[in-house]
Amino acid sequence: MLTLGIETSCDDTAAAVLRDSDTLLSSVLSSQDQIHTRFGGVVPELASRTHLESIVPIVHEALDLAGVTLKDIDLIAVTQGPGLIGSLLVGFCYAKALSYVTRIPFVGVDHMAGHLLAVFLEDDKPEFPYIALIVSGGTSSIYLAQSHTSFSLLGRTRDDAAGEAFDKVAKLLGLSYPGGPRVSAEARAGNSSAIKFPRAWLTEESLDFSFSGLKTAVLNHCNQSRQMDIPLPLADICASFQEAIVDVLVEKTMLAARRHTIQTVVLGGGVSANPRLRESMFSRCQQEGKTLFVPRPSFCTDNGAMIAMAGFYYSRESAPGSYDQDVYSRSQL
Ligand code: KG4
What we know:
The structure is a single chain. By secondary structure, the chain is α/β, with parallel strands linked by helices. It has 2 domains: 2-116 and 300-317, 2-Layer Sandwich (Nucleotidyltransferase, domain 5), CATH 3.30.420; 124-294, ATPase, nucleotide binding domain (Nucleotidyltransferase, domain 5, 2-Layer Sandwich). 44% of the residues lie in helices and 19% in strands. It has 11 helices and 10 strands. The protein has helices at 33-37, 44-66, 85-102, 111-117, 162-172, 179-187, 212-227, 234-259, 275-287, 297-300, 304-317, and strands at 2-7, 12-19, 23-31, 75-81, 106-110, 130-135, 140-147, 150-156, 264-268, 291-293. Strands 3-2-1-4-5 form a 5-stranded mixed sheet, with helices on both faces. Strand 9 (264-268), helix 9 (275-287) and strand 10 form a beta-alpha-beta unit. The longest helix is centred in the last third of the chain and has 26 residues, at 234-259. The two termini are 26 Å apart. The relative contact order is 0.19. The structure holds 5'-O-[(R)-(carboxyoxy)(hydroxy)phosphoryl]adenosine. 5'-O-[(R)-(carboxyoxy)(hydroxy)phosphoryl]adenosine binds next to helix 5 and helix 6.
């Protein structure tokens, strides 16, 4: 069975061809980073217009690289939500139109399911159940995954997502978009205990996150330093900020794993490309006798392969998509 996966939820136009559940034949992506970088964040109108220009060549490139044509495709899997509505509409309408003219069934996929399953694109696969921390520009959530299609939400952000906090702090420090990789690169030369930034644990039992106070603490620190004419220790600020985020993400994930007596932990989403998060989660898992599975960085960030995989599993359990379906901005998982 060949699945064509299409992803346009935010600012990456991506497509992939997957054979059966996990043999990836191609995965291509057109990044819009250069377009949005001068605005310091994603401009939704520009994102959707750029998807419109990229979608046809990207899908054709994915088919060509896989050595197949549309005639060989059995299923079209496309991100239905969550994300930017204008961006989602480009991929979703394109997939529906393609399905209509070719008679290939399509399935709408929740983007979070893609991140939750991305780790199965690797050779080393986890067993169910597992606790998954999904951290990206739009979400910071902890899930209990019971099967390829059954996920329970245990905790989520109450305000900024982890990636959003990285991007906003990068912007106020004058670093370019997307901020996560820039902050983590600067942090390498910094001292992570130089500045005591707050950790929002909320209540002791809570698995929810809140990062807006941390972002404000970084802003206040920068303003105070500027008022006192003290040069900004950029690397120390980045390292201390990153450590504050990583601490909370790791400890709440471990709390979820302990509470549900789960031995396997999985990471997903763009922020899980962060080397310090991977390293810290790995060492905490080792201490607590748990096994950590993390996709390679290109499967952590948005991609079409994870959408194809999630679509493959959805399609085994549910009827094909219908043409009156619409996109949605908030995750339904
Ligand atoms: O999953 P993803 O590709 O897509 C969206 O959420 O749209 O995640 C992108 C997010 C951005 O906020 C980016 O700054 C963050 O992931 N990110 C990182 C790193 N690489 C990407 N954050 C921290 N450290 C990184 N190395």
